[in-house]
Design brief:
Length: 192
């Protein structure tokens, strides 16, 4: 009985966290835009591109670009920590925790219909791993060029590159070769 109550509490907590609207970042952490100034080579720029997820009554949700400063330059941070330091709300799954990112800034919400090709009325409960047709793709770039690289590691198991970029792009009904890259060029002007 105690185990059942614990699982129910976790699920209720995840559903409660999912109600946040897009772009409701914690402005006490990080700042808008690409990392600049003293953070240019020690911070990491985080990009969250909602792609085909509706935003506000059918219009696209705005892409979020925020600097994730490193409070202890020279120390390693995971992709999850970079999201948190940028003020981005991140929720994992009940089964795997932050090992699988399920929601960013409350999206997709638990009540939101995601039109999967195989299930047009799908709603993401964030219990198990999100389906291959509707998930947050994880990308990275070192900041010296213009190309994103799809991460072969989860954000909890990958350290960010100081001065680089971390990208999240919602992939809906795409394949491994057609997942959309984030819609921001990953170029850090401070890197020669």
């Amino acid at each position: 009985m105690r185990k059942l109550l614990t699982v129910a509490t976790v699920l209720i907590g995840l559903i409660g966290l999912s109600a946040a609207p897009a772009n409701a970042v914690d402005t006490t952490k990080g700042y808008d835009g690409i990392c600049t100034g003293s953070d240019a080579l020690t911070g990491t720029t985080v990009v969250v591109d909602f792609q085909e997820l509706d935003g506000n009554g059918g219009t696209a949700a705005p892409t979020i670009t925020r600097c994730s400063p490193n409070a202890s330059p020279g120390t390693a941070r995971t992709g999850i920590k970079a999201l948190q330091d940028a003020g981005i709300a991140v929720a994992g799954t009940a089964r795997w925790g932050l090992g699988f990112v399920c929601r960013l800034e409350g999206r997709p919400a638990a009540t939101e219909t995601i039109p999967l090709s195989s299930n047009p009325n799908y709603k993401e409960p964030c219990v198990n791993t999100p389906p291959a047709g509707a998930y947050w793709g994880y990308w990275h770039a070192d900041g010296s060029g213009t190309t994103w690289t799809y991460s072969s590691y989860g954000a909890l198991n990958r350290n960010v590159v100081p001065g680089g970029f971390e990208g999240w792009s919602f992939s809906l009904n795409k394949s491994a070769t057609t997942n959309p890259v984030p819609g921001v060029t990953p170029r850090n002007p401070a890197i020669p």
